[in-house]
Amino acid sequence: MGRYSGNRSAVEALIRPTQVHRDVYIDDEVFDLEMKHLFANTWVFVGHDSQVPNKGDYFATEIGRQPVLMARHSNGEVYVMHNRCPHKGTKIVIDREGNTGKFFRCPYHAWSFKTDGCLLAIPLKKGYKDTGLEESEAAKGLAPVGAVKNYRGFIFARLNAEGPGFEEFFGDSLSSIDNMVDRSPEGRLEVAGPPLRYMHQCNWKMLVENQTDTCHPMVAHESSAGTAVKLWESLEKPEGTKKPMAMEVIAPFMSPYEFFEEMGIRTWPNGHGHTGVHHSIHSDYSAIPGYFEQMVEAHGEERAKEILGENRHNTVYFPNIMIKGPIQQLRIFIPLAANKTLVESYIYRLVGAPDMLLQRTAMYNRLINAPTSVVGHDDLEMYERAQEGLHSDGLEWVNVQRLYVEGEDMDETAVENGTTERQMRNQFHAWKKYMTMTMETAQ
Amino acid sequence: MTFPSRDDLIDFVYEEARMIDDGRFDEWLDLWTEDGYYWMPLDYKQEDPHLVTSLLYEDEFLRKLRVERLKGERTFSQKPKSRCHHVLSRPFVDEMDRDNGLFVTHTPLHYVETRLDEQFMLAANARHELVLVDDELKIRLKRVDLLNSDAAFGNIQLFV
Ligand code: FES
Ligand SMILES: [Fe+2]
């Protein structure tokens, strides 16, 4: 038994109603337990099915620290399996994506597998005659993950064979994915180009928390958004001049506290939640010519207004993605170590909608979330200085108390003031649940 | 009208890099045409700056924003400030189109950026599309292709 491994009560004690212990961010043993339990018990985003449009297409990624690949099989379905040859362990897929034709062929000794993972052939097979290979786990082919779900194009997987069902885990939070997809006149998204890849020397949960941290934009982003607002004013354009798209994207980060308070935060059970219940930083973008008409054509006026009237800001899908419905962006926070996180930011095309929408989305991605972004720079600086600061022995606990209400019930959906830290508490509530779900109870 | 010589073009590219390394960013802003773009694609050989993500695609307003931000009191990621260092190989002059007043150079370069205890190096190719505005060379497009544009980076804060 370590300090935390094999010690369920020590893990539980890291989470208090209004505080979390710093070890959830900096302790290597806690991180290992997250990979073993949290990322195996929860439904984790793998990729979008438009990344593998054709039979034989594959995409390689990780769930927690587990190398996995998703592939489009000959029956048209997307399969997710461990990216590990059952022979000697070589990764079956070495590049990030491609097309493998009808089967995968291991680059080491050429065992081959169908695109659903089943073993297809072994060279010089007679060498295994009467060895009992058929009984071995190697003969089963590429190990599948525990469960896979394709929800409107978004592929999620659960590593463990047993665990919460997909609908049970996400519940009403799926309404944010629905809204993002419904914004396409054809009800379909397509990935647009490769993702931004941004390395962070900090714990992955700092990034997830930041997605609903509405008290930092006007502070940490004053240097970018505040400067943009001042710069625009200093240009003294005539009254009524249309703001450039970049200003529409960046200026709302400088909105006052009241704006964020009034936008509202909704939390759902199991650690999911979103900012921007009533309005958001995406609400006041100018209309793109022709788009509304297409939506009316596709959905009818009432429904079109309903879809476009929803302007959720950031929706967190616990444990490690965030989506922005109004601009069709998805960010995944891939944990690499307690103090190392890879952030990938994807954008999607609304199939059938005007290109101008995708242009704004691509602009948002590079202005806000690129390693070259003036907004991203200050966020990363905060995370990395926090990762260092947490090593101080002056205090051991991190405070998540803003707008805490005694006895709050995270199994209830709730809508609250947009500056509450309830969603962070909600995440830690879920963290504790899925961390300990598969741990032995203390004797 | 006097046309720039090959040496003028090459000197321009070197001088631009030196301005950045010296931190003379206001002067650097004056090197551009009003409609000029500073582009750093995300994908090697990317053709489209609009409908897929780039690392940078900055017009005059965004270039100014970057420079103004670097001066700010509350620019936390620049406390202390980053410094950078370019090593250029001699620019190739790819085009000297006097009829259209367009001059294009191609420059392989190494870029080093440092702050606190961190230092990293990038290898890149820069393409400058230069035009004459009132007899002065200005940048209409600077395209920087990072050799490893598909790699995961930490903060890249100055100008490659
Ligand atoms: S390791 Fe894959 S075939 Fe041997
Ligand atoms: Fe931020």
Short description:
The complex is a heterodimer of chains A (443) and B (160). Chain A has 443 residues and is an alpha+beta fold. Chain A has 15 helices and 21 strands.
Name the descriptors:
heterodimer, A: 443 residues, alpha+beta, Rieske Iron-sulfur Protein, Naphthalene 1,2-dioxygenase Alpha Subunit, Chain A, domain 1, nine-stranded antiparallel β-sheet, four-stranded antiparallel β-sheet, 15 helices, 21 strands, B: 160 residues, Nuclear Transport Factor 2, Chain: A, seven-stranded mixed β-sheet, globular, binds FE2/S2 (inorganic) cluster, binds fe (ii) ion
Structure description:
The complex is a heterodimer of chains A (443) and B (160). With 443 residues, chain A is α+β, with helices and mostly antiparallel strands. Chain A contains 15 helices and 21 strands. In chain A, the strands form 5 sheets. In chain A, strands 12, 13, 14, 15, 16, 17, 18, 19 and 21 form a 9-stranded antiparallel sheet that branches. Chain A has a 4-stranded antiparallel sheet with strand order 5-4-3-6. A 3-stranded antiparallel sheet of chain A has the order 2-11-10. The longest helix of chain A has 16 residues, at 374-389. With 160 residues, chain B is an alpha+beta fold. Chain B is built from 3 helices and 7 strands, in the order H-H-E-E-H-E-E-E-E-E. In chain B, strands 1, 2, 3, 4, 5, 6 and 7 form a 7-stranded mixed sheet that branches. In chain B, strand 6 (118-133) and strand 7 form a beta hairpin. The longest helix of chain B is centred in the first third of the chain and has 17 residues, at 6-22. The model of chain B has no long low-confidence stretch (mean pLDDT 97). The chains are: A alpha+beta (443), B alpha+beta (160). Fe (ii) ion is lined by residues 210, 216-217, 220-221, 379 of chain A.
